[in-house]
Amino acid sequence: MVCLVLIVLLTSGTVFAQGSQPYHFGFKKSKDGKLPSIAEEGFMATVQKHEAIFLGDTEQKELYLTFDNGYENGYTAQILDVLKEKKVPAAFFVTGHYVKDQPDLIKRMVSEGHLVGNHSWSHPDMSQISVNRMKEELEKVRQAVSQLTGQESMPYLRPPRGIFSDQVLRASRELGYTNVFWSIAYRDWDTKQQKGWSYAYESVMAQLHPGAVILLHSVSSDNAKALAKIIDDTRQQGYEFKSLDQLKNKHYH
């Protein structure tokens, strides 16, 4: 029996197997309270089809705080202190390196009621690896966190580097994962380009909108210093921080 493999030829001349065309997550940022949009990015239908998270309920003043933890730079304990003081739930997406290097912080995240999500073992571009390799990347993280915390389930995934494909979303969903993207972010991961807590604060507050999924990187000293004020001032505007487990209405724009 001959299997016909459909291919997609992009204008760049690159050929991809069907479903493996890579996308790099991006969005039109929120400004002046208007909702952000992925309508012009070319992947909205793919994200929606696989029920990945971009926005929560845009009719409600709810916020979802998420952190990417590729490696530890000395600020996560401070972030956890603020979250504990302010009684704010968060999701931390961790790599294999982070799990091996910071077992005590992983335990603390779980014990203080936060979600620990999967960010892959070695942070590869998952659109360029086999499905079997992707499964291994995700399972190693899940098992390592489970061994540390006793937490068996790990329902949330953030694709490394924000790169994904239809195949990545489909295969990970079959493994029980919900892919979590974001609707508020700024260039905060470069530790050599920290610009002060007020820059972090303004970068987040300028994009604020109902149903927002906020992405922050825990390596940023600016984020650690700005977090308490971000929480206080968004609450003053009537926003409520919720856990991803409470996100029931997914919106796409």
Automatic annotation (TrEMBL):
The keyword Signal belongs to this UniProt entry's keyword annotation: yes
PROSITE patterns: NODB
Annotated InterPro entries: Glyco_hydro/deAcase_b/a-brl, NODB_dom, Polysacc_deacetylase_ArnD, Spore_PdaA
Keyword set, alphabetical order: Signal
SUPFAM superfamilies tied to this protein: Glycoside hydrolase/deacetylase
Residue ranges occupied by any NodB homology domain in the UniProt entry: 61-242
Signal sequence annotation: 1-17
Transmembrane segments: none
Entry superkingdom: Bacteria
One Pfam family it belongs to: Polysacc_deac_1
Protein name: Delta-lactam-biosynthetic de-N-acetylase
Protein source organism: Paenibacillus radicis
Underlying gene: pdaA
